[in-house]
Amino acid sequence: MTMIHYHVSFPNPDDHLIHVSLTFSVPCSGTVSLSLPVWIPGSYLVREFARHLSALSVTITSKKGSARRSFAEKVAKNRWTIARVAAGDRVTVCYTVWAYDLSVREAFLSSDRALLNGTSLFVVPESSLDVPCRVTFEAVVAYPEWTVATTLCPETVDARGFGTYTARNYHELVDTPVTIGPLRRLGFTVAGVAHELVCTGAEISFDEARLIADLKRICQAQADFFGTVPFSRYLFHLHLTDDGYGGLEHRCSSVLLAARCDLPWVGMGEASADYLKLLGLFSHEYFHAWVVKRLRPRAYQRYDYFREQPTTLLWLFEGWTAYYDNLFLRRAGIIDDVAYLRLLSDDLTRVLKNPGNQVQPLADASFDAWIKFYRPHAHSASLFANYYTLGALVACALDWQLRLRGSSLDAVLLELWHRYGRDEQGVSEREIFAAVARHGGPRLARWLLKQVATAQPEPLTKLAHRLGLEVEVERDTLPDLGVRWEEQERNAGRLLVAQVLAGGAGERAGLAPRDEVIAVERVRVTLRDWEPLLRRYRPGDTVSLHFFREGVLRECRVTLGEPAIKAVRLTMRQRLTPSVAARRRAWFAAQAGGNEMGKRWVQESDGRTSPTTTPSSAK
User: Fold this and answer.
1) Could you report the per-residue pLDDT of 313-338, keeping only the tens digit for each?
2) CATH number of 4-173
3) Rounded CA gap, 507 and 496, in Å?
């Protein structure tokens, strides 16, 4: 099979149906098997994209030019076979995909815009994943203002970008998203490489100059850190909605979903919390161009799009990225030390508020992402660890301990990049721990293994003083029931239990998710007056609760617990020894000369040169 040609059209965007066809020639006689992916790399859940596919038909054209209708037998949820195909036959498969999921993971089409992720759209002959692909996007006649944004290689396209593009293989095709619509395009250059931000759905005015200036600073800081830019062009697809949030990395681009209110406005002054959240998302997805898309688990050397493909290493590839995303806001000069510590404190607060972070090991949380992290339920907060936030805190603690030993996580990551990422060899868990041992000694490598292989308390608070930081824990002023309520706008003010936290007062009293609490000590209570009523009691007091469960009135007695953690704050001590002050300054500053630093550590660890720095704990 020499090439697969896809054709994509949008006859009526209002019906949200994308029409797709693929045409290919068969090299030998027999049965052809076709499949559609069940997941998209970077989002670890079987999403069953085939549930949106319909009206599949097959036409076979012989070498002599005669055409006949054929039949594709569905043999699995995402798999079809076409029997009795002769060598040299040209097969055309047509189908439609219902596209109305405005997320970063699937496909979307409306009269406002289109977002195309190839894993949702492109059925492929199973034996042809490495065959070159050509894809044609047909212009939408009804919307002459629509243009196309993608990093696919253009072959024959018009001024608006509609036409034919090529990809080296199916892997590149499905790793290259496409945005179509009335696009706002903003460009800048980093390390001589063209970068572009395309926005759709903004609808409101915003400070374009500030957004691009800040985004460029982030990209420049990361490019300087790694010492190389591994792509010839980069594209940010920014889709704006009323309340969206999310991102997904790709090899030369990323798709981001954000709320319009996250955008900066002219004259904003200090960056708002919403704007910093958006910049952190940009930073996170851009960092993935190095870490995940090139430096990646060895299990992901070749993606299997048709079944689950677990790894135990998401604590690194997502957790370390989550650590560096906000850190690069500081290193790029967008925020100061205090603002960065506020963001790190938010992560620490989230981890401490969820008991599951001390129940499930990070390696297990990584492996089980397919069935747990992406499928949360009412008891998830008590059972499951978050490999993003807890992984970020472990990364930070590892960084601090490496700095105490004369190295840094920067140095470890740069060595991993130069040894395994630059040439995309894939890295194993053993090789990661070996790199940590080279920089921090075997004892620190064993500490990291314990942190990820067993359930451990968060490690940051015990180490904060070594970086000249103080830890302040603020608790609620009310006794704790150990439950979380459904959001008010979703339940008209009723006290509906959303979660019952493990080990809390509510669990001991027998409360359960979906219980509706209606009275405390026989006094009616709603979400609005819950706190004023609870303020009348103290930790250790026992009160009666009346509640409905499945329509039946019940009563229980609950002994109220100590106030729960409200927030944790990391603050800077002002009186520091010179060594602690230097250590903290170095933490906020990026490792210089990333490419050369990585080379040096590889050479030193391979024994070709004498180490210039020996970690103090190495044994």
Assistant:
1) 999 999 999 999 999 999 999 999 99
2) 2.60.40.3650
3) 15
